[in-house]
Amino acid sequence: MLELLREVGALLEGHFLLSSGKHSSKYIQCAKIFERPGYGEKIGKAIAEKIAAHKPDVVIGPALGGIILAYEVARHVNARAMFTEREDGQMKLRRNFHIKEGERVAIVEDVTTTGKSVLEVAGVVQEYGGQVCCIASIVDRSVGKLPFDVPFYSLVKLELPVFEPDDCPLCRQNVPLVKPGSRKHSS
Ligand code: ZN
Q1: What is the CATH number of the domain that holds 158?
Q2: Residue 21 Cα, ligand 1 centroid: separation in angstroms?
């Protein structure tokens, strides 16, 4: 799976400014997996195999990273696919998506770090009376510190090196700092 991430250019090596303000020598860009539908399908199927026993009625993911993933996983577990998105900072179910009371809902995400957005999605599911049956992500970079109380699955566990900006070996080597997504990467 790690090989696949490298192959599609989803695992980048360099000097990156993370959204937390910290620096890292690696970055994961899961959107690159779905650039090739064949890979996206393969990933969706791999997650579907892990969660199928929970028999979800709905597979849901947070926009943007969870949209195609939820769709691909839902295809293989024969469930409905939907996504949440933020409106004024609040995670919501829009576009006339609806979860029925008592439905079993699997939450999927591309990369799980703190689990914060997954918990926000879980809050939305509960507002509708749905039941979160399991959670899954492609990459788990939480180092086992996730606050989930339902079964959690991932395809790959990855510990990324993280440096404080004022104590970063890459800064000391004058490697140019890149804000992911803001310019083209050679890999
Ligand atoms: Zn740095």
Answers
A1: 3.40.50.2020
A2: 10
Whole-Å CA distances, 171 to 26, 158, 166, 182? 14, 23, 8, 19
Q: How far is the CA of 18 from the centre of ligand 1 (A)?
A: 10
Task: Give all strands of the β-sheet with 11-17 in edge-to-edge order.
Answer: 11-17, 23-28, 162-163
Q: Is residue 186 one of the residues assigned to a domain?
A: no
Instruction: Produce one character per residue of 152-174: b if its CB has 16 or more CB atoms within 10 Å, e if not.
Output: bbbbbebebeebeeeebebeeee
Instruction: For 18-52, write each residue's pLDDT tens digit.
Output: 878 899 999 998 899 999 999 999 999 999 999 99
Instruction: Write out residues in the chain with pLDDT < 70, as ranges.
Output: 181-187
